[in-house]
Design brief:
The chain is α/β, with parallel strands linked by helices. The chain is 41% helix and 22% strand. It has 12 helices and 9 strands. Helix 7 crosses helix 8 and helix 7 packs across helix 10. The longest helix has 16 residues. It is elongated, with a radius of gyration of 19 Å.
């Protein structure tokens, strides 16, 4: 099948997640960079995009997705991230942690845990897959913690088991499966040393704004250097950056089922 036919078959539509996400913004850049004038990104959510994938996959129909790794969809479906010689999607990404100014003074133990939090893509995928298998989010996070006590004890090293004394913390996230997994894990760890943790699910822009304005305490959902470059530029003077929590294995890209047999975004140029 010629790549050109795929355009007509999908009505020149790329199935996207939320419009505030970096991966949708990168896809809009790719449409420009590769001169794909007829194409558009249709925005929805991570969950809705996966539902569309599932429908297409069943009938081996073509579909174009705003994809990224790590993500459980690569375990459940045979997918390809298309080559991107123009680097519209950037190169390898790191995931990072940010906190509001003042958190270090107000809750030094929580700050220490957030700063120490670091894991790998396979860890995150374990949690994501369990949630996908209908295990409750907090329970999936706790199951991972129970199986990885050595790693977790490094994050909580020297922190008293009642350090939080019941005080409240708010973590912000966007409803991306990657961030649902990571935020639930760090929330469970903070609760295990006595904090009460609220998860505040918001739009990407507000995730940064809330930390910068001090309305929320921290987020583990910063993707850099490419994905959230605009948000980082707008807000970085007003939050504390605590370093990477995953420094390998993350990549954005235009993603398709392997049965479509495409290799590069350039294959869509007519
Ligand atoms: N993501 C997951 C986000 C960052 C985390 C890749 C969907 C984004 O594109 O902004």
């Amino acid at each position: 099948e010629a790549a050109g036919d795929y355009g007509e078959e999908v009505d020149y539509t790329i199935t996207g997640i939320d419009g505030g996400s970096g991966v949708v913004q990168s896809t809009e850049a790719a449409i420009e960079d590769y001169g794909l004038d007829e194409w558009d990104v249709q925005t929805s959510s991570d969950a809705a995009m996966i539902q569309e994938l599932d429908n297409a996959y069943e009938d081996e129909e073509p579909i174009f997705l705003t994809g990224w790794t790590p993500h459980w969809k690569f375990q459940e479906y045979d997918l390809e991230i298309l080559d991107d010689p123009e680097l519209s999607y950037g190169e390898a990404e790191s995931l990072g942690t940010m906190a509001r100014e003042g958190l270090e003074d107000d809750h030094p133990e929580a700050y220490q845990i957030l700063e120490s939090f670091e894991w790998g893509p396979a860890d995150m995928e374990d949690v994501m897959l369990e949630i996908q298998d209908d295990v409750d989010e907090a329970e999936a996070a706790q199951n991972w913690i129970d199986e990885n006590e050595d790693m977790v004890s490094e994050w909580t090293d020297g922190v008293d088991e009642n350090a939080g004394e019941g005080e409240s913390l708010t973590l912000t996230l966007v409803a991306w499966d990657t961030e649902i997994a990571s935020t639930n894990v760090i929330a469970q760890v903070l609760e295990s040393v006595g904090y009460e943790v609220d998860l505040n699910q918001v739009e990407a822009n507000y995730m940064f704004a809330a930390i910068a304005d001090g309305d929320a305490d921290a987020s583990v959902a910063v993707w850099e250097p490419h994905t959230h470059a605009d948000y980082i530029e707008d807000y970085e003077d007003d939050y504390d950056y605590l370093g990477a929590n995953m420094d390998e294995g993350a990549q954005l890209g235009l993603t398709v089922p392997a049965y479509m047999d495409l290799e590069s975004i350039e294959d869509l140029q007519e």
